[in-house]
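Incident log, support desk, overnight shift.

02:14 A customer reports that sequence design results differ from what the structure should imply. Their input is reproduced verbatim below. On-call engineer (initials T.W.) acknowledged and began investigating.
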């Protein structure tokens, strides 16, 4: 049933057809393309495909995914550079930088959702499941990708083609060897939770989740990314304020065309407010999400509801949005 729904969505939207998949290699360095194709082929070889044409199409889908990730970060970096050169200062600069990050994140999660859907044109459910780790693992280096891009850019300026190939091969090799932590069955939710879980795990925070989304439900990508991503950022920061009993719980469900989200985290009980609502205690805010008030605005835009409780050193956000 899932495969039929995904296929229908793809044919309606025109993302892909079941015809040959072209390699998106235009205006790219031939050596870089060769390296990515080789890496993608190694992934395909593990799937045991017997039809050569199907194997080639799947390889191109995977390679194009790598190209797309690179393009998304290049667009983000160009926007960040433009902001820094614009002369903007203070809150206006921070908001412009946030917008560049939010657009990047939205593009990444759209790509994360579309990738397995594209593969479903050529692979059965078992093969897609075998390939899911390659889908999610790519996201695990997202926080370091900016530095990787700067390094690669510097090597390119110095005509260090061989070093670039070695460097990208090392990055892609790390992607293949990582572990997928969370598999709820919903690609969008999985992408967000896996990315955030990496940070939660590194902070030594206990994490529990309960996600129940019916098959085939199309979630509003930008709203869910904004709301869930920033609430998890807030929860992580809250738990950092304490040394014991550190945990985060996430509950997501669907009822009567509403998406229900509840996030609970322990914290030190200190709450700071101004006339706009809760105030972050972070010193640097430019790259830390849009804040609880803007999350509330996203909820209200969908005619939803949001409640925050801070009693007993438990920070609880309970909300729903209309789909």
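02:41 Re-run completed on a clean worker. Output:
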């Amino acid at each position: 049933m899932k495969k039929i729904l995904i296929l229908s969505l793809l044919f309606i939207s025109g993302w892909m057809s079941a015809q040959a998949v072209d390699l998106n290699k235009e205006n790219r360095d031939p050596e870089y393309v060769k390296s990515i194709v080789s890496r993608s082929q190694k992934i395909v070889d593990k799937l045991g495909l017997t039809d050569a044409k199907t194997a080639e199409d799947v390889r191109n889908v995977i390679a194009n995914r790598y190209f797309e990730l690179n393009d998304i970060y290049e667009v983000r970096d160009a926007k960040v550079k433009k902001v820094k050169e614009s002369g903007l200062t203070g809150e206006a600069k921070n908001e412009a930088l946030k917008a560049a990050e939010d657009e990047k994140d939205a593009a990444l999660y759209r790509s994360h959702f579309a990738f397995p859907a594209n593969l479903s044109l050529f692979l059965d459910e078992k093969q897609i499941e075998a390939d899911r780790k390659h889908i999610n693992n790519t996201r695990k280096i997202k926080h370091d990708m900016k530095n990787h891009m700067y390094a690669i850019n510097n090597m390119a300026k110095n005509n260090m083609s061989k070093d670039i190939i070695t460097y990208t091969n090392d990055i892609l090799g790390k992607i293949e060897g990582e572990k997928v932590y969370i598999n709820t069955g919903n690609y969008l939710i999985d992408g967000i939770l896996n990315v955030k879980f990496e940070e939660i795990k590194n902070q030594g925070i206990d994490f529990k989740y309960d996600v129940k989304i019916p098959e085939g439900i199309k979630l509003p990508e930008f709203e869910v990314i904004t709301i869930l991503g920033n609430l998890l950022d807030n929860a992580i920061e809250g738990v950092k304020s304490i040394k014991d009993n550190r945990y985060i719980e996430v509950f997501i469900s669907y009822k009567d065309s509403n998406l229900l989200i509840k996030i609970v985290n322990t914290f030190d009980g200190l709450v700071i407010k101004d006339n706009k609502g809760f105030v972050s205690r972070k010193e640097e805010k430019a790259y830390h999400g849009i804040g609880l008030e803007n999350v509330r605005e996203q909820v209200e835009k969908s005619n939803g509801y949001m409640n925050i409780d801070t009693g007993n050193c438990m920070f609880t956000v309970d909300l729903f949005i209309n789909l």
